[in-house]
Amino acid sequence: MGSRSNVNAELAYIAGFLDGDGSLMLQLKKRTDSTKGVRFMATICLYQDTRHERPLLWIRKRLMCGYVSRRNDGMTELRINGFSQVRETVEMLLPHLRFKKRQAKLLIQACNMLERQTLRTMKPRYIRKIVGLLLLIQNENYMSKRRKTKEELYQILGLTP
């Protein structure tokens, strides 16, 4: 990335971009090739009008991870997925975050837990802890549509009697 002060300035810029035009997400996604039929997914997403997508390309180049895609609604996004990649990226940006600092710490905690075990081998208490982190992270995000409740998530994960 360059000199140390230049690296810090770039990370501060990227963190500011994430604070303003980004999301930190932990989601439960349907998956047909798993025994439970679902999987947890960690994502960092940065959004920009497609006419001004160049900063996203620059950020991807600086972070050396993620992929950029154009949506049908005139927006472009940079997405970074995967527990290790998300955790490492959020840890780099954490000192520079202002508004998403709490959410970032929760996501790091969840990624650490999810890197250690697969959903198939997790004990119910461990899964409940991750669901709790998922809900806390979601509550910090702007809500564009209804989200699943804790009880609905428990039912999907087979944690109800």
Describe it for me?
This protein is α+β, with helices and mostly antiparallel strands. It has one domain (4-156): Homing endonucleases (Endonuclease I-creI, Roll), CATH 3.10.28.10. The chain is 49% helix and 20% strand. It is built from six helices and four strands. The chain has a four-stranded antiparallel β-sheet. A hairpin with a 4-residue loop joins strand 3 and strand 4 (75-81). Helix 3 runs antiparallel to helix 4 (101-116) and helix 4 packs antiparallel against helix 5 (124-140). It starts with a helix and ends in a 5-residue tail after the last helix. The model has no long low-confidence stretch (mean pLDDT 91).
Tell me the span between the first and last alpha carbons: 52 Å
Strand content: 15-25%
How many β strands by DSSP?
4
- Low-pLDDT runs of 5+ residues are none
Q: What is the CATH class name?
A: Alpha Beta
Instruction: Find the structural class using helix and strand composition.
Output: alpha+beta
CATH architecture identity: Roll
Q: What's the pLDDT, averaged over the residues?
A: 91
Q: Any idea what the shape is?
A: globular
Main sheet makeup: 4 strands, antiparallel
CATH fold annotation? Endonuclease I-creI
Give the C-alpha Rg: 17 Å
N-to-C SSE string, H for helix and E for strand? HEEHEEHHHH
Strand line-up across the major sheet? 1-2-4-3
Q: How many helical stretches?
A: 6
CATH H-level superfamily:
Homing endonucleases
Count of spatially separate domains = 1
Helix residue percentage: 40-55%
